[in-house]
Amino acid sequence: MPVTVKDVQKRLKHGGKLHNCTAQTTRFELPFDLKRLEGLDAKDYLRQYAVVSNNRIVLYQRLFQKFRNPTTNLIESRELDKCIGDLLIEGNVPRDRLAQLRDLTGTADLEQLEPQLFYAFCAVVERLVAGKSAGACGGTQKGSTQKRLGDLEECRRQALESADFAGLQYKLRDVNLKEGLARLLAAFTEEAARMQTGLKLSSRD
Length: 205
Description:
The chain is mostly helical. It is 57% helix and 5% strand. The chain is built from nine helices and four strands; from the N terminus they run αβαβαβααβαααα. It is globular, with a radius of gyration of 17 Å. The two termini are 13 Å apart. The relative contact order is 0.22. It comes from Macrostomum lignano. This is EF-hand domain-containing protein.
């Protein structure tokens, strides 16, 4: 049973933890009519359906400004390992893993990334490598009421995304997806299942 608003409010009141809520600082959405996914590759999907929250946009913009080519105002692909090293607390992602993520997101054949695709790529890395997108919800909740309510909203969004991806393979049975997008959505489906398990476990604490 998914976590309810009442459950989350109760846990915040008693200083409890909201496991996995951080994943929802970026949402990977699906159109109501899944047929709209036909013809899209992984890059197209990320440009259209990765919804990055304001706090993550600020971080990604800083990274972009730090590593961009000032002449083209684009991120060179050779700079991605440095970008991700700055992004993740854990440090650099192994080169083979970064190559897998670039292949998964359809960016392996690109020499440069524009801001929108770069932000989405960063969000994918955080989701699939770190299992999160930002830091506050994974531990004891502190700070202002406004911040805590923001954390609550992120948890609600996580439940919505998990619902979107639940049973996605069945929902896509009549949708003709490109192979690259099918693989990306499969990765998100697996991660959504993991997040939903975390929500269920946290609701029992």
